[in-house]
Fold each of these.
Amino acid sequence: MKTRDVIVILDCGSQYTQLIARRIRELRVFSEILPWDAPVEEIRSRSPKGIVISGSPMSVTIPGAPTLPRDFLEIGVPILGICYGMQLLSFLLGGKVERAEAAEYGRAQVEVEDEGSPLFRDLPQRFCVWMSHGDSVAWLPPHVRVLAKSEGGLPAAIGVPEKRIWGLQFHPEVVHTTYGVEILKNFLFEICGCDPSWDLGDWVKEKVDEIAKTVGDGSVLSALSGGVDSTVAAVLTRRAIGDRLHCVFVNNGLLRLNEAESVLSVYRQELNLNVQYVDASEEFLTALQGITDPEGKRKAVGETFIRVFEREAKRIGRTEWLLQGTLYPDVIESGHRGRGASVIKTHHNVGGLPKDMKFKLLEPLRDLFKDEVRAIGAILGVPNTILRRHPFPGPGLAVRCLGEVTREKLELLRRADAIFLEELDSAGFYDKVWQAFCVLLPVKSVGVMGDERTYGHPVVLRAIESQDGMTADWAYLDRQLLDKVARRICNEVKGINRVVLDLTSKPPATIEWE
Ligand code: XMP
C-alpha cells in the first residue's frame, strides 16, 4: 500500500469521536480511532502526523477517568485536545481543572485572544461554537497560553506552541461550530503538515490487490443480504478473485414486497455476481410458527439461517474464506470492549454463523464508515437502488409483524410498507430519512367502509432520522404525504383499517418494535 498520512484519535468515550474521524477523512486525511489507554508504542506504530484527544462524559478530577501517561506529551507530534481532551492536557501540563460555576452547553460565542495562533489562521475574531462541558480549566501555568475565551471568560482554547500542543474547549467537529472545519484544516495542514491524499478511488485499487494477494488461489463464500455492506464487499472481492467468489442469497420469506426478485436480478444481471439463490421461506415460516416473543423470533430466524447456510456451503464445496461486510464502527466497538470508555452497542449482524465452520474471515470494509462504503459502491458501479436502501434488520419482517408471524399478516405488512415507501420516495423524503417502514400490530379494531363494518389490523408508520442507528429521532413528515399514505393503505390493503404514527425517539424506544 502506498504510504499515507494518518491522524490517531484517542477515544475517551465522547459521543462525537466517530464524527471527528469522519470530518478528518472528509478533509482527505486518513484517521484511526484508538482507545485512550492504547500503549504509547501502539500509537507510535501508526506513525501518526498528529494526535487528537476526544471528549468524554467523565471528569478529569474523578479517579479512574481516562488519562494519559505524562511521557505521552513527549511523543513528538502535534496534539489537539478537544473538550475533555483539552482539560486532560491542561491537567497534564500542570493546570487545574474544576467543576465550572456555570456549565456551558450548546451554542456559545468565543473570542480569539491570540490572533497569531496557527489554529485560528484566517478566522474572524469572534465566532459561534458548540460547547458541552461541566468542568473547565480554572488555572494554567505560565507556559500555557490562552488562545481564546468564552463569553463567561473561561479558556476556550489553549496552546503550548513550542511543544505543538493545542486544546479546544468546544467541538470543531460539530456543524454548529461555524468555523469548525477551518480549525480542523488548520490543525491538519498548517500544524501537522498532512497531505490531503486519502482517496477512495486509490483505496479500491489497493484493496483489490490486497484481497487478491490474501486469498491467493483460494475461494471465498459470501452471504448476500441485498443490503449495501454485503453487496459492496462482494463486488469488491469479485473484482479481485472473479468467479472464485461464491455468493449465497437466502430468501427467508421475511423480505419486503418483490425484494428477492429485484435484488437477485441486480446481482445477476447488473453486477454479474455468481449467486446461489435459495428460497427457504417455507423453512423459516415453519420455524416461526407459534412464537410471539421477540427474542424467540430472532433466535428462530438466526438458527434457521445457520442451518440453511451450512447446507448451501456444503453444496458449494470447499471454501476457506468467509466474506463479511463488517464496518469500522463495529470494529471500534468490539475493540473497546472492556476498556470502559464508550457506550457499547451489541451489533446484531454477525454472531449467527456456525461455530464449527472453520473459515478464515475476510473483512475488506473494516476501515470504512457507512457513507464511505456507499461512495465506494458508486465507484464500483453498484446501482443506486442498492446504495440508497434503508437499513433492514437480519430477522426482516418477523420483527415488524408483531405477535405470531403468519403468511397472511406478512402479506398485509408487505403491501402497506410498499405503499409507504413508494409515497415517501415520490415526495422526496426517502433519502432524507435514515429509515422508514411499517409495523403491523397484532390487535384488531373496528372501522367502517361504505356501509360495512370492518374489523382489521392497525399498521404503524415509523420514520426516523439518525446518524448511526444508535440514537434516533422521529422524522417530521409532510401532512399531505401522511394523509395520502394513510388513505392509500386503508383503501388498497384489505385487512388494514387504521394507520397510526410512531412519535417516539430512541431512547426511550428502539427503532424496530421488536
Ligand atoms: P434498534 O431496533 O436496536 O435498531 O434501535 C438499530 C438499527 O439496527 C437495525 N437492526 C438490525 N440490523 N440485524 C441487523 O442487521 C438485526 O438483527 C437488527 N435489528 C435491528 C435496525 O433496523 C436499526 O437500523
Amino acid sequence: MQEIKDRKWWKEGIVYQIYPRSFQDTTGSGVGDLRGIIQRLDYIKSLGVDIIWLNPVYCSPNDDNGYDIADYRGIMPEFGTMEDFDELLAGMKERGLKLVMDLVVNHSSDEHRWFQESRKSRTNPYRDYYHWWPAEKGTPPKRWSYFDVESNAWKYDEQTDSYYLHCFSVKQPDLKWENPAVRKEIHDIMKFWFEKGVDGFRMDVISFISKEIDYPELPAKYNGDFVAYYSNGPELHTYLNEMNTEVLSKYDVMTVGEAPGIGLDKALDFVDADRAELNMFFHFDLMALDRAENEVFLMRQDQWKLTEFKKIHTSWDQVFAEKGWGSMFLNNHDFPRSVSRWGNDTRAHWYNSTTMLQTFLLTMRGTPYFYYGEEIGMTNIKFEQIKDYQDINTLNRYNIIQNEGGDLDAFVENEKSASRDNARTPMQWNEDIHAGFSEGTPWLKVNENYKEGINVLAQENDKTSVLNFFKAMVQVRKDHLGLVYGSYRLLLEDHEEVYAYTRTLGDERFLILLSFSTKKVEIHLDEIDFETAKLLISNDSELLVNTKRTFELTPYQASVYKLS
Ligand code: GLC
C-alpha cells in the first residue's frame, strides 16, 4: 500500500458531538448532566467513534446555553461538579475515547468576574479586557449583533457612561484580544484543561477575535453581510499563531475552529500545517446553501440543488488536497437535523436518506463530525408555537419581527425548518417516559417520534436499523484507510439526483453512489464495470445492475464499492 504522509489520530478519528443539556439527565432536573454522559460511555464506545466534542459545560448563566461563560475553570452546577468531570474524562480514557472541549473566547458572560470588574470604572485593571466606547465621543459606529433586538452590538452602560461591544447577546461582551493580558489569560485556561488531559478544542467563532479597535465607520456593503467584516480582523492570524506557539505546540491535541465568513480563498491560512495555527475548521458554505441571501436563519423559498451541494464539497476537498485537512458535518447544535434538511424525514424515505447521509460523511476525505442522535436518525421537531421554543436566536428574531409589525406566522413556519431548537431536543434512548432522557420535565420538549422506532433501544435490537447501519458503515471506514486519506474524484458532475465519486489510495479504489432522489434513478458510468465491483455496503438490499455499466439506484440508496 502507498505510504501515507502526515497520518494523524484526528484525521482518522470520527467525532461524536454531545450537547450535554440534552443528552441524559440523571437527577430529574430536566437538564442533561455529566453523570448522564458517564452512564452512556459504553453506548458511545459501541458506535465506533473515537472523539467526543462536548458543547460548553463551564459555569454560565445560560443566556445562550453555556456559550456565555462566567468561569472558564468551573463546571456548571446544573451539569455536575469537577469530580464528575474528572470521572468522565477518566472513563473516556479507559475506553480509548478522546475529549474535545468547546473554547468560547470571542466573548465571555457579563457575569464573568473580568467583566464585573471592567464595568466598574474606566481605570479598573480589567477595563481593557473588553471593548469600550466612551459616550462623550458620541454614538459608536455601527456594529451588528446576532442576538440583539435592535441588531445593535453596542450596549450603553450607565456606570461608566460608555458602550461595550457584544456581537452576540448583551450578556456576551466581546473580549479584547488586542490586550496581551487577555491572550495570556486564554492561553492559561487552555493549559489548565490540557494539563487535565483534554485532547483538544473546538473554538467558537474564532474567526471573529481580532477587531479594528479604532472602530471605523464601515462601508454600507457590510450591512447585511457583516460576517465578512467580522471574520477578517487584522491580527487574527497573529493571535492564532501565537496561541499555537504558546500552547498548542506543546501538546498532542486537535483544534477545530468555527469559522463563519471564511471562504475557500482563505482556508489554508488557518490550517496549512507550515503556518502553525489550527488543524481544521468548519466552513459555512453548506449551511448557507438553502438560506436566503445574506440571511443566516431564513430559509430560501426555492429548493437547493444537488449540483450545488456537490460543488461545495468538491471545491472544499480540492483546497485541502495537498495541505491542510477538512472537517465534514451536516448539522450541529446551531443547525437543523441533517435528515430533515438534506435527506427526507417522511416515513417512506427516512431510513434510506438517513443512512445515505451517514455514508456520505463516512466516505469523504476530512474528519467526519456526527451530532448526537444522528446515528439513530433523529429529526426536526417542527414546533407549531413560539412558546415551545427556548433558543435565544429564535426568540430574539421573533421579537424583531413583532416590533417591525412583520409576518409572525410566516416566521414560525420558517423556524420549523430553521430553528436551532430542532437539533437540541433530548436524546431518544428508549420508549420510557420522555424517551428515557429524564424523569422530570425536559427543558425542551422531546420529539414524539421516539415512540415510532427513533430511539436507541429499539434500534439496538433491530439488525436492520439506522443505528446498526451506522455502526457497520463506521467499520467500513475504519477498515479502509483509502476512505480516510484517498484522493476524491467527482463523477456525474451535472447529475441532479445522484452524487457519485471515487476515492483512491495507491491501487485501492472505491466507488460511492448516493441517491438524493425519491424515485428510482438509472445512471451510466462508462469507466465502471459493476459486475466485477465488490460491494462493501449498501443501505438497500435491492441492487439493480441493468448492464455491466448501467446501474439503477433505489430512492436515497447509498452503496460503497471496492473497485480494485
Ligand atoms: C457559535 C455557537 C453558537 C453560539 C454562538 C455564540 O456560533 O456555536 O451556539 O450561540 O457561537 O457563542
Amino acid sequence: MTDAAIRIEGLTKTYAGGRGAPEKHALKGVDLTVPRGSVFGLLGPNGAGKSTMINILAGLVIKTSGKVTIWGFDQDRNPRQSRASIGVMPQELNLDPFFTPRGALEVQAGLYGVPKTQRRSDEILEMIGLSDKAEAYARTLSGGMRRRLLLGKALVHRPHVLVLDEPTAGVDIELRQMLWANVRKLNEQGMTIILTTHYLEEAQEMCDEIAIINHGEVVAQDSTENLLGRLDGRAMVIHPDGAADADPVGKGITCHRRDDGALVLQYRSSETTAEAVLEAVRAAGIRIRDVKTEEADLEDVFLALTSSRSRASAAS
Ligand code: ADP
Ligand code: MG
C-alpha cells in the first residue's frame, strides 16, 4: 500500500550501554502505520520509546534494524525524498542562541534546499506569532517563544508530515491553544500530523487514531473511537427523588451508594442496555430526579493496556 503517510516495519533500536551500563532495547520490533491526512497520537509512559521512534523518523537517531517508509519513500533507499517529506518539532529546545528567529528559519530552509524565491519566513513568523521578534537573538526569547520557533523550523520545507514531540509539555494554556489551533489548521490544509503527548484528554480530543507504546512495543493501534469502545464498562449515576430503600437488581448490574445519596449502577454495555438498568431502577420503586451515564475515557484504556503489559514484562 502506498497510501500511508508513514509505514514502520520491524523497527528496533538498541542503545549501546556505556561505562558498565547494560545496552538498552528502546524499540523492540515496532510495526506502525500512520494514515495520510490523519492526526495521529503516539502515547506511552516516560521511557516507552516515543522520542526514539520520532528521532529515527527525523533522521536524528540511526535505527538498529527495520524499515521506515515516509510518504512512500524508503528511508534507506531514498533518504533525500523521505527527509523532505517530514518536518519534526523535537522535544528538546535545541536552538542556536546566536540566531534570530528569521535567521534560524532561513538557515533551516537552506539546509532543506528551499530556493530563496520559495521561502516564506514572514508567513511562518506571522503564523507562530513571532513577527515582532524576528530580529531578536534566540537566547533572549522565552521558553514558549523558542517552542514556537521550533514549530516554525519544522515547516520551512512544507513537509507532508509534521511530527510534534510533546509540544505542550510544561507550556502555558495560551501557547497550548495556539499550538492546537495551528495543528488543526495545518491538518485541514492536508498535512498529516503525528504527536506525542502526556495529556490523554488532549489526545482524545485531537487525534483520529492512536498508538499506545510501552517498553518499546506497540500494545495497541486503533481509531480513538474503537480504542475507547474497547472498555465497555459504563456507570449510571442516579439521584433519587425521595426515598430509595431497595437496591435495583438486574443481570450484570452492580449497585453502590455514594455519600450524597446518589446510586452508582455499573454495567457492561455488551451485556446490558441502559434501558434495562432504568427498568431495574423503576422496579425497585425508585423515582429518578436526575441521571447521567459515564463512559470509559482514554485514561482508563491507557492504564488497562500499560499496567497489564508492565506486569507481564516485569515477570519475564
Ligand atoms: P520516551 O520519549 O517515550 O520517554 P525515549 O525514546 O526518550 O522514551 O527513551 C526510551 C528508552 O531509551 C529509555 O529507557 C531511555 O532511557 C533510553 N534512551 C533514550 N536515548 C538514549 C541514548 N541516547 N542512550 C542510551 N539510552 C537512551
Ligand atoms: Mg520523549
Amino acid sequence: MAGIRESIHGQWSSRWAFVLAATGSAVGLGNIWKFPYITGENGGGAFVLIYLVCIVIIGVPIMMSEILLGRRGRQSPINTMRTLAIEAGHNTNWQWLGVMGVLAGFLILSYYSVIAGIALFHVFRTGVGTFDNATPDGIATLFNTFLDDPQALLFWHTVFMVMTMLVVARGVRGGIEKAVKFLMPALFLILLILLGYAMNTAAFDQGLSFMFKPDFHALFYYTNDAGIEVMTWNPVLIAMGHAFFTLSLGMGAIMVYGSYLPQNASIARVTFMIAGADTAVAIVAGMVIFPIVFANNLEPGMGFGLIFKTLPLAFGQMPGGAFFGTLFFILLTFAAWTSSISLIEPAVAWLVENRGMSRAGASVLSGITCWLFGLLTVFSFNIWSDVYPLHMFEVFREKTIFDLLDYLTANIMLPLGGLLIAIFAAWLMSRDATRDELDMGEGPAYISWRVLVRYITPIAVSIVFLRAIDLI
Ligand code: PHE
C-alpha cells in the first residue's frame, strides 16, 4: 500500500530537505524567546527536567506519528485525517482534528508574528548602536516604551506577516531549503559566541545551577494570597505544552511537511535529528541568558521581555557587539520566519485542495486572518494591558489576552491535538499500516514506538491534563 498516493503540492527534493524544513519549523521563537522566559518564571531546573522528559517520552513518539500520518495521507492535515480514517474504517469526524490544528495555527501565528516583529525591530535598534554600554534600567525602559506604542508594534507585525505570506505564496519548498541550510548553523554559531560571553560573566555558575539543579518543591508549591502553601500542576502543564510548541507538534505543521516527504526516508532517524537540534538550541539559549540575568541582578521570572532585556546588555558590552547583535536578531527573525511559514501551511494546503484557490490567494487570505487576530496581541501590550478577561479563575487572574492565547494554544490545543494523533496512529490505524510506513520491521525500535504511543504518551498527557483541571 505504501507510496501509492502522491501529493498534489509536490515533494521535498530529498530527505535532507525535509529535515531542514522541519528543523526550520521547530527552531524558532519557542527556543530562544519562550523557553528561557518560561524557565525563569517556573523556577529553573525542575522545569527544565520535566520539559526534557516530555520531549523524550511524548514529543519524539508523537513527532514520528505525525510524520507517518502525513506521509501516508499526502494531503493537508484535514484531508489526510479524513482519508486515513476512511482507510482504517473509522468515522470521518477525525477531520476535525485537522480543523482544530488549522485554528491553533492561526491563533499561534497571530501572536508569534507580533513577537517576531519585535525581534525584527531589534535588528535596527542594535545596528545603530542603541545598546552600547546601556544599563539594565535603560534597556528595560526602551523596551517598555516600545511596547506602549501600538502603531510601532503594528507596523513590525505587518512587515513580518507580509514576509510570511510572500514565502508561503511561492510554495514552501523553494526558499526554505536554501535559507535553513545556512541560517540555522549561523544562528547556532552566534549562540555559541554568546555562550563564550556568558561564560566570562561572574554569574555563569549561578546561571547553570538555576537551569540544571532541580528544586521540585519550588516547582509544585506556591504560596497564595492568604499565605498558605498550595500544590499546583500548572508548571508541569506548561513544560508539557512547551514540548509540543517547540517541536511544532499537535497542529498539523509537521504532518503537512511529512506529506511532502519522500517514501524512502526513515521517519525515526529524521525525528531524532529534528528533536536533537531543537533541544540543543533551547538549552544553549538558556545557558546564555541566565548568567546575564544573574550578573546584572535581574529577575529570571520577569516574563516575556526576558531576552529583549538581557541580550542587549551582552551586545552593549562585548567587543563587536553591534555587529553580532544585529546578526543575531536577523537570524532570530529568520528562525521565526521558517516557523511561521509552517504555521499557516496546513490552512493554505487545504484551501488549495478543497476550495480550488491558488497558493497566492490562499496565502493572502490566511495571512490577513492572522494579521487581524494579531491586533489582540498588539493591544494586549498597551491599551489593553490591564484587561484580564478570565480574572475570575485563580490561574488566569493576571493574564492578558496575549497570555491567554498563548496558554490556550500551547498548553491545551497542541497537547490535545497530539493526544488524538497518538490515539489515531496507535489504536485506530492497522499495525501493518504503521509498520509499513515507519519501515523498522517488527524489531525493538518499532515495539518501543508502539508501546510509547499506545500507552505511555496518552496516559502521561491525560494525567497532566487531569491534574491541571483542578487548577480552575
Ligand atoms: N516550533 C516553533 C517554535 O519553537 C513554533 C511552532 C509551533 C511552529 C507550532 C509550528 C507549529 O518557535
